[in-house]
């Protein structure tokens, strides 16, 4: 493992220069040397095991480190490290316990505090990191809250970017201070896996959480109507109007109402009313007419569509 720091005194966070390059035996090391953005101390040491040639006894491995665009001095060190699996680390944490009695004692102490008014609190049985049900509930011994997080999820997160910060209160939670909470573990062992929350009384007693149903104003109910074309209303053409003129088509004032059951006829034949449920044909207005068409009365427009409708008396069609 390759470590880098900006000082060689005391405990230092791992920090590589922004403009730096690391090579092992002439090969570039492709690793993240910056860590998380705006998170000092989140940089991981660089594992160069795969680039070393250890099976050749007389071979000398070389490590080159270059950096630029800075006046600061950085210190590089190489250590032989042993990698420990997450499951083994979880077992180590499980050996350190926060007793159930100490948790209840802390809850009752807060309940008797005159400056703090406490009621029942809701405890989530889900890990705030993985949003899965807690398997190994842990927290730092310096944390004052009851909410726990899962040991495996927390350690896997530190592998990606070591910060060692409690995800609940954002206080420091290094590995040495992590311990399993026996009070929360007892709750997990005595509740079904489908339970996600429980209520904790100030005395330390707990019960299943029952969310209160919000009294919402009922939404107004609306009646839905499906309109058919037969429900539409159209105006009847004035029967007393003279339709023999060559002026543009116009519709006279309405004298009654009819349901649109008539259709179009391109051959000049009149159409009759059809039973309900049929669709009204589209009305077409000929916009190709002009003043020149009025002057050439001998040659009517080549394409005209007649809108026909049956009337008791008067003309049966108009142009």
UniProtKB/TrEMBL annotation:
Pfam entry (one): zf-MIZ
Biased composition (Low complexity): 262-273
CDD domains: SP-RING_Siz-like (cd16792)
GO process annotations (BP): protein sumoylation
Residue segments, region Disordered: 239-319
Domain SP-RING-type: 112-197
Pathway where it operates: Protein modification; protein sumoylation
Presence of keyword Zinc: yes
Keywords (A to Z) from UniProt: Metal-binding, Transferase, Ubl conjugation pathway, Zinc, Zinc-finger
Residues in PINIT domain copies: 1-84
A single Gene Ontology CC term: chromatin
Superkingdom assignment: Eukaryota
Ranges of biased composition (kind: Polar residues): 239-252
PROSITE patterns, A to Z: PINIT, ZF_SP_RING
UniProt entry tagged with the keyword Nucleus: no
GO MF, any single term: zinc ion binding
Family affiliation: Belongs to the PIAS family.
Protein name: SP-RING-type domain-containing protein
Taxonomic source organism: Cryphonectria parasitica (strain ATCC 38755 / EP155)
């Amino acid at each position: 493992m390759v470590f880098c720091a900006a000082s060689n005194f005391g405990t230092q966070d791992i920090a590589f220069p922004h403009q730096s390059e690391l090579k092992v035996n002439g090969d570039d090391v492709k690793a993240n040397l910056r860590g998380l953005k705006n998170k000092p101390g989140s940089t991981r040491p660089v594992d160069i095991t795969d680039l070393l040639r250890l099976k050749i006894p007389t071979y000398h491995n070389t490590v080159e480190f270059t950096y630029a665009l800075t006046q600061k001095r950085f210190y590089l060190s190489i250590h032989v490290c042993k990698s420990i699996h997450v499951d083994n680390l979880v077992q180590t944490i499980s050996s350190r316990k926060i007793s159930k009695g100490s948790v209840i004692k802390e809850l009752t102490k807060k309940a008797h505090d005159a400056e703090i008014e406490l009621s029942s609190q809701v405890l989530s049985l889900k890990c705030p990191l993985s949003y899965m049900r807690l398997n190994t509930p842990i927290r730092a011994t310096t944390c004052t809250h009851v909410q726990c997080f899962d040991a495996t999820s927390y350690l896997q997160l530190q592998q990606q970017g070591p910060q060692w910060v409690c995800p609940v209160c954002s206080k420091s939670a290094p590995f040495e201070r992590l311990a399993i909470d026996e009070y929360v573990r007892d709750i997990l062992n005595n509740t079904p896996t489908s339970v996600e929350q429980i209520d904790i009384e100030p005395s330390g007693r707990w019960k299943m959480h029952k969310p209160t149903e919000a009294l919402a104003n009922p939404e107004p109910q609306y009646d839905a109507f499906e309109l058919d074309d037969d429900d539409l209303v159209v105006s009847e053409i004035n029967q007393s109007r003279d339709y023999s003129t060559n002026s543009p088509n116009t519709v006279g004032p309405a004298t009654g109402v009819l349901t649109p059951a008539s259709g179009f006829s391109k051959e000049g034949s009149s159409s009759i009313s059809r039973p309900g449920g049929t669709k009204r044909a589209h009305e077409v207005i000929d916009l190709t007419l002009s003043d020149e068409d009025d002057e050439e009365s001998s040659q009517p427009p080549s394409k005209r569509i007649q809108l026909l409708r049956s009337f008791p008396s008067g003309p049966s069609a108009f142009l």
